[in-house]
Amino acid sequence: MLAHLPILQVIVPLLAAPTCLILRKPSLVWLFTLLASASAFVISILLLQQVMAEGTLIYELGGWSAPWGIEYRIDKLNAFLALIISGVSTVVLLAAHTSLEKEIPQDRQTLFYILYLLSLTGMLGIVTTGDAFNVFVFLEISSLSAYALIALGKDRRALWASFQYLIMGTIGATFILIGIGLMYQMTGTLNMADLASRLPEVPQSRTLFTAYAFFIVGVCLKLALFPLHLWLPNAYAYAPSIVTAFFAATSTKVAIYLLIRFTFSVFGVEFSFSVLPLETLFLALGLLGIFVASTTAIYQNNVKHVFAYSSVAQIGYMIVGFSMATSAGLTATLLHLFNHALMKSALFLALGAVVYRIGSAELNDFRGLGRQMPLTMTAIVIGGLSLIGIPLTVGFVSKWVLVVAAIENGWWPVAALILLGSLLAVVYVWRIVETAYFKTPEPGRKPVKEAPITFLAPVWILVSANIYFGIDTRLSVEVAQAAAESLFGVSP
């Protein structure tokens, strides 16, 4: 069984999706979906342990060896991503049964869980496959289910948000497919390890540059890099709360994984950062994303919009680390990827609890919630402190590592801008704190109860993780550093 863990990681949620049709009863479907996600989480833990101890795992589908057959290649990087995706999915699902009661009609809840499992399958497939065309196939599985999940939101604006994401996502996927097709034309292979060995032998022609350009632009659309982020705020704001909490922690991270994988493993660092001016381009876009998105977040009146624009800014931090093209910079990116998943899943799930009680995420409706929903609002405050980068939270750890990496690279002005960007987060987090704790509720509003335990338990699991991994950094820092060093060919 242990030998088949790489394929089980994808097969378990994939087979679980159609099985939900047999169960039908929403409570049974929820429990079954939770078990499927938890199984994927356990598998990801076992795979990470195995990879850290033994090195890269190669699983050949049907016994056909690459490049003729399709292989799943598990190394430190994608084992780390699979852990994040399946872990967040499992914790978020703990609150799904309660959350869906008020957001999705009962006759559509089975459909929701089927789509959720398909989206989970697609994300896990993207990070585990070693075949470039399979990346596109799994990307489409994940994206198509994501469009439908967003459209299930009870606000009619969810339909427009879904359509907007569909258009932008389809353009991104088309660009990625064109890039993969051009790579195949030049090398005659789709296996990523084989591509990595053959692409350096290809003359630096227009076809090579075009392939890379199409692929990178397509991935940047998917990861919502500024200024290609326009689909993200509405998608996060109007999707069902569980969908927002899951996607905010995982979907853009999968796209960042693709950016890292193809830049460092397939095309190579020398081509990406020496032949092409990617360092300057991504540094500029990353810093612009931090300041423009953070400033925009300050002026939002919907709290989901606030944290959605905050996500665009946090992606900017990851891209700044990526642009350094050093092991320290990439470590900072991977560490912030892990930490941001914990922050945003906690924040959006806590927002889901607020929406469950008051039916709104408008900032004005948060007046007085600090006293009426103390546990939920405390969770939002801690998540906000983590976004700012206050010590003893995960946000501090990754921003510290990023600043150190910038200083080691001789980028003192960039280090100063990173710290300045964190101060902007203070402003939009304070607006929420001020409204919830220092303003009285609107006259005539009925008393608001604290969120149910089925919501609070997963929220506080994630909040506790924000604090725990801010103090004990052994897992996150060691794995991120090992994954970054492996991409630069540094032996452990």
Give the termini separation. 28 Å
Main structural class: mainly alpha
Low-confidence stretches: none
Strand order of the largest sheet: 1-2
Mean pLDDT: 86
- Radius of gyration in whole Å, from Cα? 21 Å
SSE ordering: HHEEHHHHHHHHHHHHHHHHHHH
Number of helices: 21
Strand content: under 5%
- What is the count of β-strands? 2
Shape: globular
Major sheet attributes: 2 strands, antiparallel
**Helix coverage percent:** over 70%
Please render the helix and strand layout as text.
Elements: H1 5-23, H2 26-54, E1 57-60, E2 71-74, H3 76-93, H4 96-103, H5 106-128, H6 132-151, H7 157-187, H8 192-198, H9 206-222, H10 232-238, H11 241-267, H12 269-275, H13 278-298, H14 303-323, H15 327-358, H16 369-372, H17 374-388, H18 394-408, H19 412-438, H20 453-471, H21 474-487
Antiparallel strand pairs: 1-2
Helix pairs in contact: 1-2, 1-5, 2-3, 2-5, 3-5, 3-11, 3-15, 3-20, 5-6, 5-11, 6-7, 7-9, 7-10, 8-11, 9-11, 10-11, 10-14, 11-12, 11-14, 11-15, 13-14, 13-19, 14-15, 14-19, 15-17, 15-18, 15-20, 15-21, 17-19, 17-20, 18-19, 18-20
Task: Briefly characterize the structure.
This protein has 492 residues and is an all-alpha fold. It is built from 21 helices and 2 strands.
List keywords for this structure.
mainly alpha, globular, 492 residues, two-stranded antiparallel sheet, 77% helix
3D structure, described in words:
With 492 residues, the chain is mainly α. The chain has a domain at 277-492. It has 21 helices and two strands. It has helices at 5-23, 26-54, 76-93, 96-103, 106-128, 132-151, 157-187, 192-198, 206-222, 232-238, 241-267, 269-275, 278-298, 303-323, 327-358, 369-372, 374-388, 394-408, 412-438, 453-471, 474-487; strands at 57-60, 71-74. It has a two-stranded antiparallel ribbon with strand order 1-2. α15 runs antiparallel to α20 (453-471). The longest helix is centred in the C-terminal third of the chain and has 32 residues, at 327-358. The radius of gyration is 21 Å and the shape is globular. The mean pLDDT is 86.
